[in-house]
């Protein structure tokens, strides 16, 4: 990164968010509305999925990658894990970074 990271949650209007997303070279995100807006804009993105169903809500297109842990209980769609959060613990920084770098290389 060439600039400090900044959290804009709650600090932009929808119009401003679209402008911010359109300027990105890469978005690292969770399964969210912001993910879908970025995907529609063609922004390269890596989406981390845990208990939500990647088959239903994954971003579309060649410029999107999904990182998830293949565990027997996923997708449970629960907000609170009754077991051990295996679907999220298995998603490592190295895996997300690897997908992000590969995506940027593919679209350089």
Task: Note down, in words, how this protein is organized.
By secondary structure, this protein is α/β, with parallel strands linked by helices. The protein has one domain (14-106): Glycogen Phosphorylase B (Rossmann fold), CATH 3.40.50.2000. The protein is 37% helix and 11% strand. It is built from 5 helices and 3 strands; from the N terminus they run H-E-H-E-H-E-H-H. The protein has helices spanning 14-22, 33-41, 54-57, 86-89, 93-106; strands at residues 27-30, 45-48, 64-67. It has a 3-stranded parallel β-sheet with strand order 1-2-3, sandwiched between helices. Helix 1 crosses helix 2. It is globular and about 40 Å long. The two termini are 16 Å apart. The mean pLDDT is 93.
How would you sum up this structure in a few lines?
By secondary structure, the protein is an alpha/beta fold.
How many domains would you count in the coordinates? 1
Shape: globular
Averaging pLDDT over every residue, what do you get? 93
Give, in order, the helices and strands: HEHEHEHH
User: Could you say which structural class the secondary elements and strand pairing correspond to?
Assistant: alpha/beta
CATH architecture: 3-Layer(aba) Sandwich
Strand content: 5-15%
Helix content: 25-40%
Strand line-up of the largest beta sheet: 1-2-3
What is the CATH level 1 assignment? Alpha Beta
Radius of gyration: 14 Å
Tally of separate helices:
5
Could you list the spans in which at least 5 consecutive residues all have pLDDT below 50? none
Q: State the distance separating the first and last CA atoms.
A: 16 Å
Q: Biggest β-sheet: count, sense, barrel? A: 3 strands, parallel
The CATH superfamily turns out to be Glycogen Phosphorylase B
The fold-level CATH name is Rossmann fold
Question: Total number of β-strand segments?
Answer: 3
């Amino acid at each position: 990164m060439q600039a400090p990271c900044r959290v804009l949650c709650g600090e932009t209007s929808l119009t401003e968010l679209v402008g911010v997303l359109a300027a990105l070279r890469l978005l690292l995100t969770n399964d969210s509305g912001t993910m879908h807006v970025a995907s529609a804009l063609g922004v390269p993105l890596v989406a981390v999925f845990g208990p939500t169903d990647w088959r239903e809500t994954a971003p579309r297109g060649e410029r999107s990658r999904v990182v998830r842990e293949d565990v027997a209980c996923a997708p449970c769609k629960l907000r609170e894990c009754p077991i051990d959060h295996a679907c999220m613990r298995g998603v490592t920084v190295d895996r997300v970074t690897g997908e992000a770098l590969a995506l940027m290389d593919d679209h350089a």
